[in-house]
Amino acid sequence: MPDTTGIYGERKDTLSASVFTAAGNGNFLSKGKDIRTEVITAAGLCKMACCNLAESFENSASVTVGYSDAVTGARQIRLLGQSGIYVQMLDENRPVMRGLSAPWGLNYVPSQWLESIQVAKGVTSVINGVESMTGQINMEHRKPTDEIPLFVQASVMNDTRSDLNLASSLQLDEMGKWSTVILAHADGNFMDMDHNGDGFLDDPRGGMLSLANRWLYYDPSGLQVRFGVRGIYDTRNGGQAASAAVNGTRWEAGVGNKSLDGYVKLGVPLNDDNSRNFAVVADFCYDKLDSRFGRSPYQADQSSAFVNLLYQDQQLENHHFTLGLSETLDLYNEKLVLVRPGIHSTISTEGPITLSDLGAFAEYTYHYEDMLSAIASLRGDWFYGYGVRLSPRLTLKWTPVEQLVFRANGGRGLRHSTPLIDNIGVLSTGKNIPIASHGLLLMHPLEDSWTYGGNVSWYLPFDESGKTCLSLDYFGTRFTEQMLVDYSAKTIDFYLLSSLPGGYSYTNNFQLDFSAEPFRGFTMTLTGRYTDARQTLISQSSDIKPMASRYKAVLNLQYATNLNKWIFDFTASLNGPVKVWDFMAADPMYKDGYTPAYPLLYAQVTKRFKGFDIYLGGENLTNFTQPNPIIGADNPWAETFDASCIWGPLLGIKVYAGVRVTIWKTEKI
């Protein structure tokens, strides 16, 4: 069983060892994980531009990434047919990107800061809470113990978007007790781009600065202390170009984000072989948002603390136990002045809103050799204002023969809704939010779901590499309570699923993956996903969930010459139709109320030298963009204005070039 605290997962006996590299798939399904997990490696993060986490999933059909709206640059992911708010985001097993940081959090993680990403489907461990309602995405950052005193990456695109990353890992004493990694990032868009001529910028102008410092103290006794801090400053300005202003008044979307977070992780061995240990994980984050959407300002701040106390016992060979207590505390201040035609209303908290989750949990893991494993867990959480809720979860893995793996898991998920932040795109419209919905926007109701599913992976004996794999999985999610958002032509309503007699909200998700290495240096991956998402909404004539993709297929091909001196990458995806809101269906572009399917192509060539790489690539080579992404762009002050109904790419062909420079501590072999 992997160390779920992230305390004991890093080897300490390789500080002065030589470094070996080997060619491998950038994306693969982990054979050893108990839960169905897709791993995106450092090599996978280099396959395309991948300036940030939001752009790191183009080779994956499991995760779909799109824009929340056409003016702010906010990104959102979908997993198992549901919004990314139901995916628990982890930074080395610490919950992150919650609340105010969620809409832009994907943009705030530079991909070159990461060494891998793990995407787990379905409900996962209860150790970090029960917010993983459809899955979990864990990010592994560059480590203090990496033998890279300096890494520099820089890239530029044809639209002037530029990106710079620095990383430096340092070992501060000969014994290797103290080590640190410094991470720095800067990016920016410097030109107004309006390729479709609607008067609105295709991508907001502005930039971001980010700096992080992570430390590790390791004692030969097994005691480990990890701590770090990160600060972010981001400012973006989108909306109408100055030349498109009506009567000198410009509809502008301005977003300013400031964030500071820090963490401490302490691991204490309780016996000589570390089979019993105690761990403490503490995290604090402060986010401040200052934004304006047209004439409507929205200001908010969030202070969050997370503390996890864990005891792990692995003394018995086949039986592992984890017990713990945790507390998650969020303090929100929000103020929205909603200005619409003939309407001027203020939605504001009276002092901070407190969201508290105090939980106790137990997890038991049984392993029988490499054939069978079972993880049974139970967590009880006391939610402030909602009482105690129990969340059982079960994971099973069976490997009857080495080439065949069966997995199944299921359980309950719970999370506090943060309606305005979860649906930030509603502010990029001229639509009114009825008074009846105002109370819900500040209520933060508790959402409740059950997710279950399974996976079978067959490793075919077609080549000596063992990389030929066929995998099929199914996952379903059923909500018993959910915050629903319902669009009509001039209003956006919020209401709870429980308020609808006979209401329901569910998804069924099927996926097929095939990967192979037909000959040395050439790898291929083919993935297909189909999603059936249903939801009861008052204003919609059908229960098919609006703005949710029905299917996606991805083909990735990579060829690397001897010693990886040249690497060629090609990715093609086919993105299926989306059911649009009923008020959009009258547009002839949406035949039978659906968007058209569209292809996307990506290509990149990398030339590797000793100590540095240069690469050249292109994105969206089909040059497909969503026609008229902004409804009513000619009159942004009308009730019918809507920049939030995004289902396709907003930017056409992009060409980029970049360089990666690595200085190694020891000679690389």
Molecular structure report:
There is one protein chain. The protein has helices at residues 42-45, 102-105, 419-422, 435-441; strands at 27-29, 37-41, 63-67, 75-79, 82-83, 87-91, 95-96, 114-121, 135-141, 150-157, 162-171, 178-189, 205-218, 224-239, 252-269, 276-293, 296-313, 319-340, 343-348, 353-368, 372-383, 387-401, 404-416, 446-459, 469-481, 483-487, 492-496, 505-519, 522-535, 551-560, 566-575, 598-609, 612-619, 654-663. With 669 residues, it is mostly beta strands. It has a single domain (27-663), classed as Maltoporin, Chain A, CATH 2.40.170. The chain has a 22-stranded antiparallel β-barrel. A hairpin with a 3-residue loop joins strand 6 (87-91) and strand 7 (95-96). The longest helix has 7 residues, at 435-441. The two termini are 31 Å apart.
Descriptive tags:
669 residues; 22-stranded antiparallel β-barrel; Maltoporin, Chain A; 34 strands; mainly beta; single chain
Summarize the structure.
The chain has helices at 42-45, 102-105, 419-422, 435-441; strands at 27-29, 37-41, 63-67, 75-79, 82-83, 87-91, 95-96, 114-121, 135-141, 150-157, 162-171, 178-189, 205-218, 224-239, 252-269, 276-293, 296-313, 319-340, 343-348, 353-368, 372-383, 387-401, 404-416, 446-459, 469-481, 483-487, 492-496, 505-519, 522-535, 551-560, 566-575, 598-609, 612-619, 654-663. With 669 residues, it is an all-beta fold. The protein is built from 4 helices and 34 strands.
